[in-house]
Design goal:
The structure holds two protein chains of two kinds. Chain A is mainly alpha-helical. Helix content of chain A is 40%, strand content 4%. A two-stranded antiparallel sheet of chain A has the order 1-2. In chain A, strands 3-4 form a two-stranded antiparallel sheet. Chain B has helices at residues 2-22, 26-48, 56-72, 92-95, 97-117, 122-143. Classes of the chains: A mainly alpha, B mainly alpha.
Amino acid sequence: MALRWSRVLGAGAAVIVLGAAVLWYGSAPRPASAETWEGLGEPDLARGEALFWAGGCTGCHAADGAKGEDARILSGGLALTSPFGTFHVPNISSDPEAGIGAWTLAEFGNAMTRGVGRDGEHLYPSFPYTSYVRMTPADVNDLYGYLQTLPASDNVTPPHDLPFPYNMRMALGPWKFLFFGDEPRVELASADDRIRRGQFLVEGPGHCGECHTPRNALGGLKADLWLAGAANPEGEGRIPNITPGSRSVGSWSEADLVSYFETGFTPDYDSVGGSMVEVQQNLSHLPGEDLAAIAAYLKAVPARE
Amino acid sequence: MRLSSCALAVAAASLCLSSALAQEAPQIVRQNLMKEIGRSVGAMGAIAKGEKPYDAAVVEQSLTTISTNIQAFPDQFPPGSEEGHETDALPTVWERPEEFRSQADELYSEAQALLAAMPADQAAVGEAMRRLGATCSDCHETFRAKKQ
């Protein structure tokens, strides 16, 4: 009997030790292999700029309300409020001290697609690497090349202001294990090239689902409610459902959606509102075929009510 | 002489009164100005989307309505019209009147510039819509209640 108990205890201890080891190993920041970022050649700056607008970098990284050329000064400083605390958006301008001008492509790429910072630390998913992970190394190379052409800003931004336990970056390891991956958000069996392009733009750089999809208590996206609308993380109101089942935009045609992205006018010629104003202004820089691809994808995703 | 001037004054006063009575509440006046702007933008939007063929007369009429109406628009917010008639005007209209006026001026200048250049085909109307759209949302975000 005593023997059996000690065996059980021993087995229990082994499981705990093993579990801790798995958790430790499994939750360590994991950059991509060094070769990932090698041999990519000269960046294509035009592609990089398109990704810059699709990604809406300026929405968070430029000064609040920056317009025109000021939207290209990525000085950081915006405070993003969330249920987990306040995130202060960093300076990602080309300044070598205050910005990311001195970063290598690998450092930038690991931040973008692995959520790993320059010092090897986990980054918070307020920076939507959870979407950017769907970008290819070539995309990252082009985007980084373009960012380096933008003005430098010496603005020094404050660190995030997060209460315990959210201030523990280590906890992001298990979070990533649960919620971070590069799989498609939805399976679209019969998608043509245009819908696939839209899927890349929406699920990848556009990171539309980060606001339009509801989150669970741990801040992970509810996969079965993709783009079904969510509480506004920054305050009152809701971010609308943008699936074909939406009561507000489900009836919009693809042409209506494209026109909205281009001009900011809804089909009844009201103007775009809320945080979408800035997103729309960024989207209006994209070529028409990309906007049509986004519209086609939004019509192809499962309807949610 | 005295009698006639008195009669004149009475006549003028009653004229004023009757026109005041006939006048609609400023909330309604400004809502109608905006609705006409919306319809004009819609007429141009139909061309931009290819739902209607390009028609220079429609474009010109639309841009004229937009500039005429937006010029009159900031004058329709007298004290006492802050509430009622389902107004969506935010208190910022009265708190920051200069900014409000300059936003309206911005749309006016944009519409005037477009009239001067006159968009000559569907693509140019589309470009005009982009330029108008940006000014619309800028002002609405600051001065109009959010839709829920």
